[in-house]
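tmp note - FBA_2 domain-containing protein
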Amino acid sequence: MFEIFMNRFRKSVSELSVVDDGFNCDGSTCKWANFKVKEKFISNRSEWIHIDFLLSLDCQRIYTYQSNFSAEDLNKFIRSWQEGKTNHKLKLMECKSDSSRDVKEALKDCRSEMMDPRTTRVKYK
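out:
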């Protein structure tokens, strides 16, 4: 039923929240939506989201929980956003997972610097 909604709904929405704990994606993934999400996208069970779906979103805030994105997927998303190819309106993204990811792999070639929070001092100007 959810797949039918994602494929047939055509009206732009301000916010899309998929937060039902009983939601079951049946192993399928969603690669795109036929509508725009303007402000905020939230999913508390994000196994159904394909990285292409995230790349197609152009909203201000994205929250995904229990996601199954690989480090390579996250790297693709970050680089695409940094290079201005996708997600032009994005101001905040929160992506949480139950499994570990290689942070160095996710940030590879993203002009980032790894810092140890125990020894790094914050400088205020």
